[in-house]
Design goal:
about 375 residues; mainly alpha
Length: about 375
């Protein structure tokens, strides 16, 4: 009996004020497995841009990345509220990891308009989540209705995703957008009967760790650029623009994200968990897209791709501009929404986008991000002095 009870424990709410709440080893393992899918999505976008199919590549990337991010988001918020780390929870998490690997294996085919594997992987992960919500409904009367709404909502939307496989390619986008809205509606409707007890600092840590992992994909692209620069057979001086620009972009974005405490802001009265949680799609997706853009710029400089200077330049500057705008709206604004933070971010976005039309857009973007970081450091230090 004791062995059984240690393997299967009631799935009850965690304390949202629990001290020293940190990510578990299993959560970290899950993130590392999800990065496989992130890498596949970024690789698909890189190849599409370099082969002259940027428009379709961006569309497929946005859809594939949503599947990755949304399943990760649901797993993260559920675990923050109810994770008891028993044997069943561990097995279901491993089942979700299996689904993420199936999804990752199907991303390359999805860029060729074959969505079968990516849908199968997505459904596998959602089955595990539904079982977890059913456990909550049976073990926790306080959140039973919320849990049942989640379980039913997830099942209904999954039926829609299965139907997505049979939709003609011409209807991919409108059908996808409709199903995304349905996905967003599930937590909004479910939480009306009782907000689940998620932990602000735990959620902030989980998001920050995933952000680091996604930035790692951009670092990988920069590493490839360094290899090409020192190969001797390529125009090393030109590829160096990608190396320098990529390093400035990555480390500036990392510093900007972690300069202010997300956990404190997320727990404040002005923070909407839905806006903060859902809005990170743009931060994460743009971070992964930057890596694809840098790789496409390497192809451009070395003559290994068909992408033009303008298109490959935009592949870097547009996601940088998106992540800066999202970073201010999602994160910085919760700490300081005044013009003194908005103006530097807005000006930097304009400069970065303007850099698209220069000869070295990656370098312009990197220098602009570094300059913004310098301003942000001055602002935060000034705020500390005033306090």
């Amino acid at each position: 009996m004791n062995r059984v009870s240690s393997f299967i424990r009631p799935l009850v709410p965690r304390d949202p004020n629990e001290e020293h709440r940190v990510a578990t080893p299993l959560e970290l393992l899950t993130d590392l497995c999800f990065v496989v899918a992130v890498a596949q999505a970024a690789t698909g976008l890189h190849h599409a841009i370099s082969e002259g199919h940027a428009a379709s590549g961006v569309g497929h990337f946005a859809m594939a990345f949503f599947a990755i991010w949304w399943t990760w988001l649901n797993f993260t918020w559920f675990a923050s509220a109810f994770d008891n780390d028993d044997g069943i929870a561990r097995l279901l998490t491993i089942f979700q990891i299996l689904g993420s690997l199936v999804l990752a294996a199907g991303i390359a085919r999805f860029f060729d308009n074959d969505a079968l594997l990516i849908i199968i992987g997505y459904v596998i992960m959602r089955i595990a989540l539904v079982i977890q919500w059913i456990r909550v409904s049976r073990n926790c009367p306080e959140y039973a209705l919320t849990a049942r709404r989640y379980a039913l909502g997830v099942v209904l939307v999954q039926l829609g995703w299965i139907g997505f496989y049979f939709v003609p390619s011409a209807l991919y986008v409108p059908t996808f957008l409709f199903l995304v809205l349905c996905e967003f509606a599930v937590p909004v409707i479910s939480e009306k009967t009782g907000m689940t007890p998620w932990h602000p600092h735990h959620i902030a840590e989980r998001y920050s760790l995933f952000f680091i992992i996604v930035l790692g994909e951009t670092i990988l692209s920069t590493t490839v650029a360094i290899q090409d620069a020192v190969a001797g057979e390529q125009p090393a001086a030109k590829v160096a623009y990608v190396v320098i620009g990529g390093i400035l972009i990555v480390f500036s974005l990392w510093w900007l994200y972690f300069q202010r405490n997300a956990g404190d802001a997320l727990g404040g009265d002005d923070a909407s968990p839905f806006v903060w949680g859902f809005g990170h799609y743009f931060i994460f997706a743009a971070a992964a897209a930057i890596g694809a853009g840098l790789a496409a710029r390497v192809d451009y400089w070395t003559g290994h791709g068909d992408g033009s200077a303008l298109v490959t330049g935009a592949a870097v500057t547009v996601p940088v501009a998106v992540i800066l705008a999202a970073l201010w709206f999602i994160h910085i604004r919760l700490h300081d929404s005044s013009a003194r933070t908005l103006a530097p971010f807005a000006i930097t976005v304009v400069v970065v986008l303007g850099g698209t039309f220069t000869a070295v857009p990656e370098l312009v973007a990197g220098l602009a991000c570094a300059a913004l970081l310098a301003v942000e450091l001055v602002l935060t230090e000034g705020a500390k002095a005033e306090a």
